[in-house]
Structures are given as C-alpha cells and as structure tokens.
Write a structure and sequence with these properties.
heterodimer, A: 389 residues, alpha+beta, four-stranded antiparallel β-sheet, 13 helices, 18 strands, B: 290 residues, Rossmann fold, 36% helix, globular
Chain lengths: 389, 290
Amino acid sequence: MKIHEYQAKVLLSEFGIPVPRGGVATTPAEAKRIAAELGGKVAIKAQVHAGGRGKAGGIKAANAPEEAEKLAVQMLGTRLVTHQTTPEGVPVSKVLVEKAVSIQRELYLSIIVDSASSMPVMMASEAGGTDIEEIARVSPDKILKVYIDAAGFQAFQGRKLAYGMNLSPAQIRTATSLMANLYKLFHAKDCSLAEINPLVVTAEGALLALDAKLNFDDNALFRHSDIEQLHDVEQEDPLEVKANKLGIRNYIKMDGNIGCMVNGAGLAMAVMDLITQVGGRPANFLDIGTVNNTDRVVAAFKVFATDPGVKAILVNIFGGMARVDVIARGIVEAYKQMDIRLPLIVRLAGTNVDEGKRILAESEVRFIETTDFYDAARKAVEAAKGGGK
Amino acid sequence: MSILIDEKTRLLVQGITGGEGSFHTQQCIEYGTKVVAGVTPGKGGSEILGVPVFNTVEIAVKETGANASMIFVPAASAADSILEAADAGIPLVVCITEGIPVLDMVMVHNYLKDRSTRLIGPNCPGIISPGKCKAGLMVGDIHLQGNVGIVSRSGTLTYEAVAQLTSFGIGQSTCVGIGGDPLPGSNFVDILKLFREDKDTRAVVLIGEIGGTTEQEAAQFIKEKMTKPVVAFVAGATAPADKRMGHAGAIISGSSNRAQDKIAALADAGVFIAPSPAEIGLTMKKVLEN
C-alpha cells in the first residue's frame, strides 16, 4: 500500500527523522495561510501516489504567500500526469506547503527487502536526486549497501554508509542515528519500501528528508490499523477500487477488450500472454484466488459489467485449491443477478471439474465451451472482435 | 527415486482441523500419502480423518515419527508454525499458506539459516511424487509417474504443464511448487540441484514469472552446473509493468526483472524455451525425442 508524501513525513517525524517544516492544504486559501506562517518562501508539492512529479510540474517554488496561493489554484482539482501514471493522470486534492530549504548536497537513502539474500538491505548514495536509477545502472559502485541480519541494524553499518557518502565529521553521528531510526520505522510498520530521496544536507549542514516514499506490505496491514487508515482510494483506478471492495484483491485494469477470470497469478499472466500471442488484448489481470466462494465469482462478473471496454469474457480455471464446481455455481449466480450479454468462453479443468461442467450445462447460461487452453484464448479473441453489448 | 517426498514420507499436517487443511489432508490420504499426525493447539487427543491430532509438533514427532510437515495455518501465525516444525527437527516443511508478511519470512530465513530443515513455499501448491506421495493441493489424477521433474513459482500454471506432459504420455518424477512469494524457502537453484542428483529425473521443466531475479540465478546455475536438459516458460511477458516501488526495487535487482530478460538469460544458458504456455509439454516432448 502506498501513502502520500505528507503522511510519510509525519511518520518519519514520529521516528525522529527531521523533515522540512510545512503543512498540508486542500484549498488555495489554506496554502496561502501556511506559506505566510512559514515566512513566505515555500515549495508547493502536489500530493499524488506517483513519482516524476517535479518534471511534470507537480512541484513548484513560491516566493510569497500570494504566489503560493496562485500555484495552489493551478494544482488543486487538476489531474497530474507523470511518466509513472496513466495518460489520464491522478487527481491532486492536496498540496504540501513546505518551507524552502537551501541545499548543499543531495543524498539517497532507502531500505527494501532483498529477495536474493532474504534480508533487508539499506542503500545509500552521494548521488541523490531524480537520476539515481540511471546512476545505479551506469556506476553501481556509487550505491553503497549494508545487509541487516537477525542482529538488527548496527551503528557500525551506519558509519560505513555515512563515511562512504563523505559526510563531515559532525554529520556522521546524526546520519547514523537517522539511519537507525529509518530501520526502526521500516521494521515497526512492516514497510516494503522506505526511501528518502533526496536526503539533503542544508546550507547550515543539517540533514533533512526533503522527499520521502513509504510503501507497506499489504499482507501485514492486519496488524497496522493506523497505516490502513492512511489509504487514499482516490489515487487508484476506480475499477481496481471497485474490485477490491468486492473482495477481489488481485485485479489490474488494462486497456484491452477481453475480460479474464483465472485462478492463480501465474496462470492468469499466461492467459494474458496467450491472448496477446493470438492477436487479442486482455482487459485485465484477474486472479480469482483460492477461496471457494461463489460471491467472489459474482463479484468478478460485476467488475466485467462495469468495464465498458470488455467485449468478451474468458474464464480459465484449473482447479486445485479452488474447486471448479463452486466456480461454476458462481457463474450461474452471476447470470441470475445480472443481464450479461457478452460472449462467454469457458475452459474448466481440475478439482471437481465434472460437477462444474454439469452445473454450467444444466443452467441457463449460454457459453462457448472449450477444453484446451490455446483454443480458449483463440475463441475469446474471435468473440471479442464480433462482440458487443 | 524422486526428490523430497516418496513412499517413506510420514506426513504431519499443521492446521489439520481447519476447512482447507482437512479437505486437502483427505485428498492426500486418498492419493496414498501416509498422513501420520495432525497438529492443532487445543485439539490434542482428538482424531480427524482417522489421524491423531496433537497440541504441539514436538509431541507429534515423538509419537509418530513424522518426517515432513504440511502447513495450512492462517497467515498471521504461519511463520510461527514453520519455526515450530523446524525446532522439532522435521527435515522437510511445506508451507501452503499465502499472505505471510514479508518481514515474518525474513525472520523465518534467519531462523532456518543454521538448521537443516528445508522449507518449500510459502504460498505454494506443495509437492507431488506421482504414484508415491502427495503433500499439496494439486489434483492427483492429472499426474503420471515418470522421469521429468517440474519446479515452478506458479500453482495453477504447473497443473497446466503437468496436464500437457501427461497427455503426451510423459510422466513426472516430482513436481515442486516453490511458491510465488518474494522470499521463498527454497528457490529454483535449490531444487535444480536435487533433480540433478536424482537418478529417476531425465529432464526438468522450470516455470518462472516476472519479478525478482531467481530465474537469472537459475540460468547461471544451469549454464555452469546442470547436467540434464531444462525446458522453461516464464509468465508475464504481457503483464502491466510492475507497479513501481520507488527507485529501490530497480536499484537492488541491478538488471531488469521483466519476462523478456529472464527468457533471454535462460535461453543463453541452453534452456529450451516453450514459445507459449500451451506448448510446454510439446517442447519437452521434442527435447526427449532428440
């Protein structure tokens, strides 16, 4: 789960990591008031769940409260398009107004779990800022790494990174404790990513988290209700939000016309690969999951019905933990609840397949049956070409 | 022979009294697996499906000589169950549970580092050695005993591959689902090593996915040390670009984790690449015929 920059900075503060003074505004008047309180010279930052804001005009400097107000008028209520968003962009409902900082150096600091070593790794670099990925690619030696084992983050690891970034003697201790605090936050809140970029050295020589990104492990949200409350659904695709509300966690909207309902993420991706190979375009990725529950199948069809792009539906189920008979019952139930006129292609195999096929065959549901994976994709592509509502 | 499980496996099920646990335990028993014990704290002394239930893994092992465990407990306490099984000295733990927090798995990896327990999963369909033993969710009757090993990150896509192989009369020695989590207990290389040593395995099917770099590590191993032919498919070539996790994900993996890069690495290592997910069986058939 992602949160906004202003929310991340509140958490950083709670864990003793210094951030610029500032406040969040939902109206231009508020932005003006906050800017005045901060002395007039401020940065106005659009609060969206996407990177690349600076280059897209989502971060601007103001020299006076009136200018801050004007910039807030330009940003609030619009949609920001960056290289990380869809062409429609994401809505800007809040701006962060922060006291301007005079910057001496821009550093990089982050923590992520490294799957190769199964350990959290803290990465640091002197070359902070927007080009960090390019620097990592061209000169990986400029990225310093320390791996954190069962003993937890140690002061010597902090010193290793701090000296490696050529911090001044006076900054070493501050940097080391800042790193220890970032690891504390990462661990305490089950982050999947904690990134400060840039971590700046101000003209006065202080360390400050100028921008921050915190992502959280969805699987651990059950033990962090405080984090769950920070969720901003406005930043997500409305169809994905709807799917989520209906109990489908693994749904990603795409721009094709074949609605796919598949069990298992690997098989769902393989179905998308196959549809593309035979000349079609999937409308979504949808892993129905392993819960044996007709409600969730009905929910999937509700999502298809809401997506105007869907011209045909492909159901490909290879039952294992998911039982085919339950899936079949769910399809029948969906057709009872909704008037679905899209062509439906069904391929069923695995646990309780015979019972599943019987249920579908004896129902009112009209569908094209196929027993072969490849054939299912081909028929769906054909149906989508001639299909419509 | 086969790897990890066979006729001598004495299976214990943690979470045997839950809905999924009891359903799949029954399926395993029907397949012929020797399920010797179940563990559910608080239900010790009872019996389910003719299997004695114990309060702790330690007692269950002492009483029944269980030498493998299959875990069905909910995500919030699954890590604890893995540790309990390892503490009791069980050499093989298969964790089916999905949704375990990543930092719980970091802790599990730390705990297992100096122990001999091998963990398969979590978030996996388990293991089957056709005709001998099943410790997982897969449908038994699509399998056929034979000489092709399968190792996969995906559950249902593995069933697909198995069904294709079986339809060509190509049997399987052992099918191992290592699971789709970012921190699996065992990775491709761990299982490839076992297949390399297994007399009954002539060739291996490897099924990968986008994300991480475990396919690249497998490619490196295959290039340098694998003595048997490998057929591979990597799912997700058309998946939407991974929802970005800041810069750190791209920095840590160094190389990209797209399907195309994984396929290129595997092909470079001499792996036979299945052109589509519907042609995994066919690709293996051609390899075996040559």
